[in-house]
Automatic annotation (TrEMBL):
The lineage of its organism: Bacteria, Bacillati, Actinomycetota, Thermoleophilia, Solirubrobacterales. This is M20/M25/M40 family metallo-hydrolase. It comes from the Bacteria. InterPro entries: Bact_exopeptidase_dim_dom, Peptidase_M20, Peptidase_M20_dimer, Peptidase_M20A. Pfam families: M20_dimer, Peptidase_M20. Keywords: Hydrolase, Metal-binding. It comes from Solirubrobacter ginsenosidimutans.
C-alpha cells in the first residue's frame, strides 16, 4: 500500500469514532433547520483550517443552507466530495451513538454521517498535499432524504473532473466495493377527490377516497418487476385518508416509491393510473425525479489505479438506492459512490457502522481520490 495512504487513513480512523459520536448526537431529520445548522457547526469544527467554508441555498425551500468547503491547491484536477447530514429519524426516535460489540449504533450513523466523517477526514489529509489538486470541494446537503424539488447544485460544480460520494461502503466478495451504477428513483404522489358522507346513515352517498387509493396502490404494485428488463421496483409506502371513524373519507393521498434503470420506466408506471376510480377523481404526479447513474466504463481506469495504490482490489458494484451522486453523473463522468464505512440497517432504529471498517474504508477513499485526480 502507498505509505501516505496508510498513514493518512490511520489518522482519519483514530478520530472517526469520536467525530461520528459528535455528529450523530445531533438529531437532524430532513427539514429541521436547527438540526441541520448544528450539524454544519460540528462539521465546520472538524474541517481543516485551510478550507474556505460557505453556506449556500438548499435545493428544498424552507430548509437550512447547505455547506460547501473548498481546498485550493497547486496541482491539477478538481474533485467534489458529496454527503448529507439529514436523516429519516424523527426527534422523538433519535438515538445517540453507542458502542454495541463491533457496532457503532446510532441514528443516521451509516446513512450517512459515517461517510461525512470520512469525507471530512479526507479533506484534512489532502490539506497537507496541495500539490495533488487544483481544487478539492466538499458538499454537505441537508435535504437528501426527503427532497421533492429539483437538485440545485450541479451548475455550481461545472468543470469538476470527479464526483465522489460517501454513502455507505460495502464488500464485493473479498474485494472492497464502490458503487458505479444506481437506479433512477421517483416518488409518485396520488391524491383522491371523492365525497364525504355519514358512514352509518348515508354511506352510499359518499365516494370513498380511501378505497380508491387502495385500488391505485394495487395498480402501482402490479408493475413491480425487479427481474424484468428495467429492474423496476414499485412499492406503495404511505397512505393517508379520513378524519373520523364515522365519515366516508372524501379525500386522501398516497405515496409510492418507484425505482428502475431509467426514469422512462418510472414515468410509464405513472401513465397506468386512471383519472377516475369508482367515481373518485384521481390526480397523480411524479414529485421526485432522480436520474440513474451509469459510470461503469468511465471509472474503470480509476478503480484500477486505486487498486494498485491500495494493494487490494477496488471492485465496481451496483445499488438500487438513490443518492446525490446520480445528479452529477450526467455532467461529471468520473462519478463514484459508496466510499463511506460499512455498516447496516439504514433507516432503522438499529442502524450502525462497523468500527473495524473505518480504517480500510478511509484507505479506499484516499486511494480513489488520488486516482481520480490523477486521471483528470
Amino acid at each position: 500500500m502507498d505509505p501516505w495512504i496508510r498513514e493518512a487513513a490511520a489518522e482519519i480512523a483514530a478520530r472517526a469514532a469520536r467525530e461520528l459520536e459528535a455528529l450523530v448526537a445531533v438529531s437532524s431529520p430532513s427539514g429541521d433547520v436547527h438540526g441541520a445548522n448544528e450539524c454544519a457547526s460540528v462539521c465546520t469544527a472538524l474541517l481543516p483550517g485551510e478550507a474556505t467554508i460557505e453556506r449556500v441555498p438548499c435545493s428544498s425551500p424552507g430548509h437550512a443552507q447547505d455547506l460547501v468547503a473548498r481546498l485550493h491547491g497547486t496541482g491539477t484536477g478538481k474533485a467534489l466530495l458529496v454527503g448529507h447530514v439529514d436523516t429519516v429519524v424523527a426527534h422523538e426516535e433519535h438515538r445517540p451513538l453507542e458502542r454495541v460489540g463491533e457496532q457503532l449504533l446510532g441514528s443516521g450513523s451509516v446513512d450517512m454521517k459515517g461517510g461525512d466523517v470520512l469525507a471530512i477526514g479526507a479533506l484534512r489529509a489532502f490539506a497537507k498535499r496541495p500539490e495533488l489538486y487544483e481544487q478539492l470541494a466538499l458538499l454537505l446537503v441537508c435535504d437528501e432524504e426527503w427532497r421533492t424539488a429539483d437538485f440545485g447544485h450541479v451548475a455550481r460544480f461545472t468543470g469538476f473532473d470527479a464526483c465522489l460520494c460517501f454513502e455507505a461502503g460495502e464488500l464485493k466478495g473479498a474485494d472492497e466495493g464502490v458503487v458505479v451504477k444506481r437506479k433512477a428513483a421517483g416518488t409518485i404522489h396520488i391524491t383522491a377527490h371523492g365525497r364525504s358522507a355519514h358512514s352509518g346513515s348515508a354511506p352510499d352517498r359518499g365516494r370513498n377516497a380511501l378505497l380508491a387509493l387502495a385500488k391505485a396502490a394495487q395498480i402501482v404494485a402490479l408493475e413491480h418487476d425487479p427481474q424484468g428488463v428495467a429492474h423496476l421496483t414499485a412499492v406503495p409506502t404511505v397512505m393517508r385518508s379520513g378524519d373520523a371513524f364515522n365519515v366516508v373519507p372524501g379525500t386522501g393521498e398516497l405515496y409510492c416509491d418507484v425505482r428502475a434503470d431509467d426514469l422512462g420506466a418510472i414515468e410509464r408506471v405513472l401513465e397506468k393510473l386512471p383519472a377516475e376510480i369508482d367515481q373518485v377523481r384521481i390526480e397523480a404526479e411524479l414529485i421526485r425525479r432522480w436520474p440513474g447513474m451509469h459510470s461503469e466504463a468511465a471509472v474503470a481506469p480509476v478503480l484500477d489505479a486505486a487498486s494498485s495504490a491500495l494493494g487490494r482490489r477496488v471492485a465496481p458494484a451496483a445499488r438500487g438506492g438513490a443518492s446525490d451522486a446520480s445528479h452529477f453523473a450526467a455532467t461529471i463522468p468520473i462519478t463514484i459512490d459508496g466510499l463511506g464505512p460499512r455498516g447496516g440497517k439504514a433507516h432503522n432504529p438499529e442502524e450502525f457502522v462497523l468500527e473495524a471498517s473505518l480504517q480500510p474504508r478511509a484507505e479506499v477513499a484516499l486511494a480513489v481520490i488520488v486516482a481520480a485526480l490523477a486521471a483528470a
